[in-house]
Write a structure and sequence with these properties.
single chain; alpha/beta; Rossmann fold; 8-stranded mixed beta sheet; 13 helices; 8 strands; about 45% helix
């Protein structure tokens, strides 16, 4: 019995020491916006005051565009996910994108409310601040969810809808990014506030690409740096615990506006079957799949994915 207790005590000590070494090696402090903005908020970035937050925003293209395009990123991402699309679209259209609460340089919401409904209120507050009565609204993943719920709740504000691998329905994921799994795991998700190995970020980004070889060091730098923005890691946990998958799915058929649905055929997070369901339930919608792309097709291959969007924008209602 004494030998068994000694063995257990020894193993426990080894685990404690190993954990301490791991935490010491991978300790990652928060970074302030001032530390990050020289690299990630270069012109035309600006910061505007919304709901107690300094929101990181880019507003590009001709100001006389009567119906600007507003693009919403997904969980863990930032306005930069739309860089390729913005470069093409801003030649002829006004393009607005911003870091949503809990992410990017905008950071955590003061009230800690990361429900879909509160994100919708945030988007509408942006539109009001910019004096935009009507927009074309698009989003990827979480951003897609916020976009279509905005269109349901404020149909007079949204002229057209763009859904890119959008969430909103319940789904069975084939492979969840490691960072998302950790954010869903009690105890470990609290450890994330202080520890963030770069390798976890890299594996998570590679997981959402159809072709992981396209993931560059600079891309990993961006996701890693912005994840360490003060408060973002804790906010990600808040967002994860507050999400209610499928809670508004019964309202999708209420959408009666021109809708383009884009989906990566190799999306291992939200299955392409969900794109089929959006297409069935949104009457008159158009669905385009990209066989070799993953969960963030607009980022993985901007030129290929923006083409159908440009055609869609050229069509009259």
């Amino acid at each position: 019995m004494k030998k068994t207790l000694k063995l257990i005590s020894g193993l426990a000590l080894i685990l404690v020491v190993a954990a301490a070494i791991f935490i010491t090696i991978n300790w990652e402090p928060d970074r302030s916006v001032d530390e990050l903005k020289d690299r990630w908020a270069k012109p035309p970035s600006q910061f505007i005051q919304i709901a107690g937050m300094q929101v990181h925003l880019r507003d590009e293209g001709p100001r006389n565009d009567p119906t600007p395009i507003v693009l919403l990123h997904g969980t863990g991402a930032s306005l930069h996910t739309w860089n390729g699309w913005a470069d093409e679209l801003k030649k002829n259209r006004r393009v607005i994108r911003f870091d949503m609460p809990a992410f990017g340089l905008t950071g955590p919401s003061p009230d800690g409310d990361y429900t879909t409904e509160n994100y919708v209120r945030f988007v509408v507050a942006i539109l009001d601040k910019l004096k935009l009565d009507h927009v074309i609204l698009g989003g990827n993943s979480l951003g897609g969810y916020v976009a279509w719920v905005t269109a349901v709740l404020y149909p007079n504000r949204i002229e057209k809808l763009i859904l890119v691998d959008s969430s909103g329905y319940r789904f069975k994921t084939k492979s969840m990014p490691l960072a998302f799994r950790l954010a869903n795991t009690p105890v470990l998700n609290q450890l994330m506030r202080f520890v963030l190995p770069r390798s976890i970020v890299e594996k998570s980004v590679r997981n959402v690409y159809g072709d992981p070889s396209k993931v560059t060091s600079e891309l990993v730098d961006r996701y890693f740096d912005l994840a360490t923005r003060t408060g973002n890691r804790q906010a990600l946990v808040g967002r994860t615990t507050q999400r209610r998958l499928g809670s508004l799915a019964n309202r999708v058929p209420e959408l009666h506006l021109p809708t383009l649905i884009l989906w990566g055929g190799l999306d291992r997070l939200i299955p392409p079957e969900n794109g089929d369901r959006f297409h069935r339930e949104i009457v008159g919608s158009k669905l385009v799949k990209f066989d070799n792309l993953g969960h963030v097709p607009q980022e993985e291959d901007p030129l290929k994915t923006v083409g159908p969007l440009i055609d869609f924008l050229a069509q009259s209602n």
